[in-house]
Each structure stands twice: as structure tokens, then as C-alpha cells.
Amino acid sequence: MHRNFDVRNFTLAVLCTLLPGFIQAADIPSAQELDPLGLEVRWNSQAVLNVRRDVVAHVSNDENNIYIQSSSGMLTAFDAENGRKLWSTQIGRGDEPAMAAVSNKDTVIVVAGPVVYGYNKFSGTQLLEFRLPRQPSASPVMGEGIFYVPITGGALYAYETATLEYQFRFGTLPPGVALPQAWRFICNEKIVHPPVLGLQFVAFATQSGNLHVVNTSGVQRGTSRYQLFLKGPISAPLAIVDNARSSSIIAMTDTHRVFSVELMDLDRIEDGQPAQDVQWTYPLGRPMKNAPIAVRDDLFVVAVDGTLTQFSRDPAQTFWGRPVEIPLYEAPVLIGAGMVDAEIDPQLQAGLSVGGQCVRVTTVVPGSPADQAGLQAGDLLVTVNRTPAASVTVAKEVISRLPLRFNRPIEVIRVSTGMQLMEQDSDSPLQISDTETLTRHVVVAGVVRDSAAMEAGLKEGDILVRIGDELIESVEKAQQATAAAAPGTLTLQLLRDGTVVPAKIELTTEKQPLQPTGVPTVSLQTLQLTIPVEQWVVDGITSLSAVGRFSVFGLDRTNRLVAYDRATSEMQGRVAVPGYAVHLNNSITDQIILISSTGDVLCLREIGPTVRVPRGLSDVSNRATVKEVLVTKDDPIEPTGTVVATVEFPDGTEHQISADNKGLVQEVYVKVGDIVQVDDPLIRIADDKFATYHQRPQQQPVDAELQSSGGNAGQPENGETP
After folding, report:
1. How remote is the C-alpha of 138 from its chain's centroid?
2. Is the peptide bond before 332 cis (omega within 30 degrees of 0)?
3. pLDDT by residue (tens digit) across 128-142?
4. Rg of the Cα atoms in the chain
5. Cα distances (Å, whole numbers) of residue 489 to 449, 458, 484, 506, 711
6. Nearest to residue 679, comparing CAs of 541, 535, 572?
7. Interval 299-331: pLDDT, tens
8. Which residues neighbour 8 within 8 Å (Cβ) at sequence distance 6 or greater?
């Protein structure tokens, strides 16, 4: 009896393995699991394959379709907008090795063995079948009306699709019709990676590290534009980035270097300058095997050790051609200094030869760039990088445009009395008067020789009680009160040996009698301000899935989907995606495509941005209380800015937090009375129902069914990605 039970169980296990109906589908992550990553399920579908013996071999996509190829040669095409299965077909003989599908606006081709198969990418109708003269050495690349195939032996062949279609339809070419081979370029070196196609050129790399660029238009098509030796074999597929005026190619070598090579620059060509050279190279120092993803001026590279690095391709940036640098201090604090508008006293204007408007520093955050530069509370900020700081608005604008990492001069008017101050906690409150006590003392820690403080009779150990009418409880308050008294007489009240001692210091721009060094009490000083940075680098990524508008998505070493903030590189969240063993390295759209080995296809999309508690709202705390929540689910968010919440910090200051991404409130995470801290989420905005297209956003397809039913394709009016 026991033996028969085991047999039945064994039989059931075999049936579950063999029958398609018993195949366990990959689990779809729940909305709660995807929410921290800012994602939602857009659609899911199933590719055609024999689950008893077949697995997914290749995944590729274009602006319209997603193509799934099985190991047995079955090709399935899906509509990328809604996941509808468009068609499927068997490519070549069963189990014949094939390369990933490539396509243009209306045709998809697959090379299986030495044969090229072509299909209408929307209907699946076969258009061509052509046997290559030799086995290909890498996948082809496809342009409009032509495709390029690397051939074993070291050659690149160009074929006209119209000629091949005619030959396939009628079986032969009529007299006078050119051969399907438009041209060939022979280099006699093995082409190890697929070529890449630019506006006017096709580029490919050989095993020895030669980068060839060949003309694809004009009377010189098929001829070499130029050849560049990169001093090392190419370690990963090439990437090309182009627009209406220029093209660049990104290459990575076995010497662990990233190269950006200019292919075409119409501005330089029109100026009579050569338009092909190495724009920049960066020694990453880590092996790279995956193709980079380029989204306009952002380049993302994954190294073998799991490090994801973002590079800048914007020549206007100081970190052009190197990992993106993120300022450690950003708006609204900028440099870690509180500032208010101020006017310079006419006497100081005359004595120091400065203008009348400036900014007064009210607070300095310890360890901030302002602190490192030597700024003090009470300083009058006159110029930033030689630009007059006529107001807080002007000062912040200039600071926000300062180059990162580099010293830049700032001029401040400072009162230097020669007092060295420090704060001390008291064991018992110090009674100053019937109504006033000091629980924290400001003590004179030292007096500079021959200074104004020494001339006024100050001594080490004196407790600074008052400056003018201000009761002094902190060094910062002492600095502010001292600076506010200039020019003029600084009236002090000191406590020395239990006795109240008055003192006066004259604050002028002239040299004091006991100052042989000639340093005036009030002077114009030049400090050096540096905005520190950290590189946009994250660890633990094995491959990059997609680059969204707000986050970068990839898979980590444990096959979890992980999201990083595109601006700051901070991790937004992780979600396990068990069963989805294959994923698309999507450089064309921001959709995330995950595929199981049995052909389950899952498409995820970014919902929209999460509005969080920003940094720098308070110098006293990172925690605040939610006082008001001004939006609810489905409320509109305007691009001009919508206030979503008000928070109050422990010092009593309140701040309104706004959002400016157009869309609808999808989720509200907080309520009145909640305690939140920096980077905590407040709301999430849903602002798009369609994919963002990185390469050609103006050609973004529109789903006819959704449009006819009142849906909005979500394409911006100007045709550009938001």
C-alpha cells in the first residue's frame, strides 16, 4: 500500500512536468510589493513555446513590438503598448541556432544558421528568405530599407531588403536589377559584436580592437569613413547615440576603459573642422561585458563586479566624460548656510569700497561647505565667484551654478574682535537678573594678542553675558550680535569671578592702536568655497533593465528587481521576481520587461514620481510633524506647482511641500499628526499611461483601441519626452 502511494505521487509529478497545463507560471508581484519602486503592472502575456523542452533564448524590442525567441526557433511578437500577441512563427529548422531579432519601422529579420528570414513586424507575413554566402559572426543591424551583417572571415555585408523581398516573391531577379548585396566592406578581422547604426554611418569593432566607421549614404557609401585603434579588444557590444546634429559611439575595452568616439557633428563639419575623434575616455578600472544604455546625455554602464555607474555626455558639465557628480548640498540650503537680505552701512561702503546690497549669514551647519569655507554667522556675503550677492535669490542662483569640486572665491565683510569663544553647559542655571537665567554659557576661550578684544580688557575665562541688549546663549548668537554692531561701538557685559564687568570695542575699518599687523576690526575677507560631491555609483547590480524618468531599474545578485533614484542614486526599493529568469536590457523605452523560462512575459511601468520630504528644510532636525495634507487621491497636480502638505519642525518653523509633475494623485501616504523625516514619501503621482521612448520620442506609437475609447496616448504636445 505504501509503495502504490509513492508510485501515484511519482506519476503525478511526471504529469506536472510534462503537461503544459500543470506548468507553474511565474508569480506576478503585487501592487504593494511594486509600490516602493514606483512601478505598476502594465500587462502580462505568454509567448508561444513548448514548455516541455523549450526555453526563452532571446528577447528584443523596438518602438512598437517586443520579440520573444525560443530555443527551438519559435518567434512571438507582442504589441509593446498593451501586450497583445500579434503573431508567432517558426524560424528555420527546429532547434537551429539563431541570433536575436532586429527590426526597422515595418520589418523584422532573424538570422538562423546562415539564412536570413524577414517578416512584416505587425502581421507576421514572411517577406524574404535569403542564404548568406558564409556564416555570420555576430547579429546584424537594420536600417530603413537595408541591413548589415558581419560575416565570418572579417567582412560587413549590406543588403537591400526590397531586392531580397522581390527575389523571395518571384524566385529570381529580373534583368537589370542590382544584386541584393549593396556593398561589402572587408577588414580581414573577426567582428565580435553586432554593428551599430548612426545617422550616416555604420560602426563595428574587430576582435583586435579596431573600430571601423563606414559611410552608409551618398556616393561614398560602403567606403571607410575612418578607422580607430582603441589599444585593446572590445569587451562589450557598442552603443550609439545620435540626434539631428551629431552622432557618438560608446565603446568599452578589455583594458577597462570607456571611450566616447565622435562619428558626426554637423556644427563642426560646417565650421570646416574634422568631425571624428575621441571625445573622451575614462579608466573605469573594472571589466565590462554588458552593452551600455544611453538616454540622451546620460550613459549607464554595468561592470562585471556589479557596479552601475552613470556617466555624463553633456559637454556643458564639469564632469563631462566621467562619472556623474552629485552635490552633497543642494537647494534650498545649497551650502549649509542660512541667509537673509541685508544692506551694508554707508560707512562700511566707503571704507571697504563695496556696494550697498548683500546677504547676511544667519546660521552655518557644522561640517557643511559653508563651515569648511570658514563662513560664520553674522558675516555679510558680498560676492560669490566675483558676482555681487545683491540678494538671497541672486546668491542662491550663483551658488547653484558653481562648478563642483573646485574652489571658488567668496567675499565677506567680517568683524574680527580677537575673541575666541566656546560654549559650555552649566551644572546649575546662572541667574543674570530677577527674570533672566543662562543655562548655557559662552566663555572667552582666548584673546588674540594686540587685538581689539585685548585692548578692551577681555580675559580668558570671562563669561559673555550680553552684547548690546542681546542675552548671549550661543557662539552663533554672539557672532550675529557682534556683526550687527559694525560699524560703531560693541557694548559687552561680562561675568568675571562672579562680578559683572562692562567692556566696549570700537568696530571700524581702520587699524586699531594695538594691532601692529595692520588688520582692521571690520574687514573685507576672501574665502574659498567648494561644493563637495559624490559619484553616481551603486553596487550589487548584475544587469540594467530600464532607465525611467525618475528611477533606474536593474536586477541584483539574488534576481530581485531594484530601483535607484536617477538623480541621487539612492535606493528606492527592491522586490523579488521569482521565476523571471530572463529580462530585457531595454535602451529604447522605459518599460521593464521580465520573462520566465517558460515564456511568461511581464511588463512593468513607472507610475510617476513620489513626492518626499526634501532635505535642507531645517537646520535643527530631520524630523517633522505633518500639520496639513492638502490633496486626496485623484486630485490634479499642476505643472506650475501644487502644495501637497505642510510640515512643522521642532523649532516651530513650518514649510509647505509642493509637487510640479503634472498628473493625478495616486496614493497619499501620510495624515495629519504623522511624524515624518527627510526622504519619507508623502504622495505618489500617476502622470502617464504610455511608455517613454528614449531614442525617437516623436515616433511614439499610439494604441488605436485605447484612443478610440477615450484614452489618452500621453504623448507631449511638442513630441518630446517629459
Report:
1. 32
2. yes
3. 999 898 999 999 999
4. 34
5. 20, 15, 11, 5, 72
6. 572
7. 999 999 999 999 998 888 888 899 998 888 876
8. none
